[in-house]
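User: Sequence recovery, please. Input:
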């Protein structure tokens, strides 16, 4: 019954019938849209289910003031269609949220994707039916559908995290989460705004809100390293030059460890073997260039604590130069390893604290005690606020997947399989969950890359795999437990070789109370992509097909 209403239990009981679709895709962000396009391209029937009312994923939900990408626009875009990448014009070096959302709407229209997308529909449960090798998927509105394959394009940063402060809900004014921002612009004029959180979303929104609001009080738990974006309009000649060899540009970027920034690639020299004067010059040049390539200043920054501290000290010195009040500057100067949490890329973040209407409150030492009807209390003081912005991040990488009750072979629940942290093979498949794929799943480079590159690499791999299964008459594919164990050990081994596990980042799940502390992404894109190709060349090594 195509697209009609069906009950989950009835559908499961009647699973002798062929499934309605070849593939169900969950999520209409960069990943789901391209997956739908590829699935249709290889002749599969596909249904994409999306909780939001439109396409865009991250760029549909994160409409907060100042939201923009921190990977340059010419890179943060699809490469699967040369016509698309040639015809689309970006207006700025780092595109704003509305522009990226326009782009994804354009993609949906250009490739006529909407007829196969079901909006306003949240997937609640999914059961693998062993008798038929199919998935039955249940949605929050009580409906159900079935498919042979289930592709989770649910996003690494799509499950908003709002800390459960005492008194939550008692506040009488409006509250906003950056990742669930209203569609109508919020007017902060004349308001006293409290902003909790100083990660990428906080550092982007604080300067913009501060220009509008009467007062802004920033509640900072951990100080943040941020490098200026130096965002500018994108020159016509620059776009033309890149487009003249877009394929070559994409290829060079994908050869970088984080799949981005080939125009200022990582420097292999070691910080500790470089004379201090020369070292300072390298940092200064990268600071002036702006953005994430700052971390590529030296080859040892993410591996050696002492080397890392030379970069950290450079940024701390910049903060002390920019921020006039030395007490505030010291409070803003991070003491952690630089790059171990995602480096932020800002437009005037530190300088915002020179404004008379901005106050910085350190809630690291004395945590927020409670939300009150009039504001919030911290360090024994009550802050009167008209509204509160939660820039408190996401239950990253596993949150969106584990919110769905996914049951694989023998009724195995994903929540139980991942009780001590996510376990995948290549971040693409999970042992015990046949015919299910995760796009940019834990155990893949995902959030440590230009994510569009990782997404396209995963979608291409999955689509090729589906085509291979069809051509060979296979009904089923599943990651082998031993292959998965080996992969998890490999991901952990690489992480432990770096400084990444050394701070309380969302990469480790440390931002969500009670979440298992496991480093979830894999460091290093090029060897990973090679490994995925090798698995295919060896007949899907590590997977069982039947
Ligand atoms: P998403 O865009 O998150 O889409 C997932 C979709 O799945 C969502 O629309 C969600 O509603 C839907 N969904 C989830 N669960 C369900 C369910 N149960 N039922 C139905 N639908 C569901 N990455 C970069 O590389 N560079 C950047 O500059 C960058 N900037 C970012 C800025 C912000 C503010 C944020 C939050 C993230 C940023 N990222 C960036 C990461 C970004 O998430 C990825 O680049 C990319 O947009 C992810 O696309 P996706 O399709 O995998 O997931
Ligand atoms: P985030 O990096 O996790 O930052 C959340 C902030 O909230 C942190 O400062 C955190 O403090 C604070 N916080 C969380 N719980 C708190 C509590 N109970 N009390 C006080 N403070 C609390 O989340 P995000 O800023 O939304 O960014 C998430 C990721 O999305 C980024 O790392 C990036 O990958 C992506 N992103 C990118 C951009 C971009 O520039 N393109 C913009 C936004 C997001 P602690 O540090 O102490 O935990």
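Assistant: Recovered sequence (546 residues):
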């Amino acid at each position: 019954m195509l697209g009609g209403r069906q009950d989950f239990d009835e559908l499961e009981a009647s699973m002798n019938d062929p499934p309605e679709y070849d593939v169900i895709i969950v999520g209409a962000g960069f990943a789901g849209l391209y997956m739908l396009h590829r699935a249709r391209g290889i002749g599969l029937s596909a249904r994409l289910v999306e909780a939001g009312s439109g396409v865009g994923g991250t760029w549909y939900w994160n409409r907060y003031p100042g939201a923009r990408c921190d990977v340059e626009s010419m890179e943060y875009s699809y490469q699967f269609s040369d016509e698309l990448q040639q015809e689309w014009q970006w207006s700025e070096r780092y595109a704003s949220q509305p522009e990226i959302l326009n782009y994804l709407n354009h993609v949906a229209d250009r490739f006529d994707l909407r007829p196969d997308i079901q909006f306003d529909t949240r997937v609640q449960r999914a059961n693998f039916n062993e008798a038929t090798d199919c998935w039955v998927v249940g949605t929050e509105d009580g409906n159900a559908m079935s498919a042979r394959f289930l592709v989770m394009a649910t996003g690494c940063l799509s499950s908003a995290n709002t800390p459960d402060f005492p008194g939550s809900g008692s506040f009488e004014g409006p509250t906003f989460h950056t990742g669930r921002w209203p569609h109508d612009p919020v007017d902060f004029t004349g308001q006293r705004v409290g902003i909790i959180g100083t990660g990428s979303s906080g550092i982007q929104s604080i300067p913009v809100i501060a220009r509008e609001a009467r007062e802004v009080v920033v509640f900072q738990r951990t100080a943040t390293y941020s490098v200026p974006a130096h965002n500018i309009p994108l020159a016509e000649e620059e776009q033309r030059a890149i487009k003249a060899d877009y394929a070559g540009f994409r290829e060079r970027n994908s050869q970088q460890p984080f799949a981005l920034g080939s125009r200022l690639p990582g420097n292999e020299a070691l910080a500790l073997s470089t004379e201090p004067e020369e070292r300072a010059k390298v940092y200064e040049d990268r600071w002036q260039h702006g953005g994430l390539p700052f971390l590529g200043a030296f080859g040892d920054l993410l591996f050696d604590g002492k080397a890392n501290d030379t970069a950290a000290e450079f940024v701390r010195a910049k903060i002390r130069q920019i921020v006039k009040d030395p007490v505030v500057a010291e409070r803003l100067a991070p003491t952690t390893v630089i790059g171990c949490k995602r480096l932020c890329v800002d437009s005037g973040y530190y300088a915002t604290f020179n404004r008379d209407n901005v106050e910085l409150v350190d809630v690291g030492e004395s945590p927020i005690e409670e939300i009150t009807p009039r504001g919030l209390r911290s360090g024994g003081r009550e802050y009167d606020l008209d509204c509160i912005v939660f820039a408190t991040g996401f239950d990253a990488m596993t949150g969106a997947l584990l919110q769905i009750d996914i049951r694989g072979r023998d009724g195995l629940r994903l929540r139980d399989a991942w009780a001590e942290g996510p376990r995948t093979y290549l971040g693409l498949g999970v042992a015990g969950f046949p015919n299910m794929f995760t796009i940019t799943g834990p155990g893949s480079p995902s959030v440590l890359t230009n994510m569009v590159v990782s997404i396209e690499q995963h979608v291409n791999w999955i689509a090729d795999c589906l085509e291979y299964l069809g051509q060979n008459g296979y009904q089923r594919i599943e990651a082998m437990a031993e292959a998965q164990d080996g992969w998890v050990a490999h991901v952990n081994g690489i992480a432990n070789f770096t400084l990444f596990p050394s701070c309380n980042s969302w990469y480790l799940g440390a931002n969500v109370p009670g979440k298992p502390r496991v480093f979830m992404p894999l460091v290093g894109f090029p060897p990973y992509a090679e490994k995925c190709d090798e698995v295919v060349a060896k007949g899907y090594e590590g997977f069982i097909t039947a």
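The pocket of flavin-adenine dinucleotide (ligand 1) is lined by residues 26-32, 49-52, 57-58, 60, 62, 67, 69-71, 76, 122-123, 153-158, 179, 201, 400, 404, 439-440, 450-451, 455 (CB under 6 Å).
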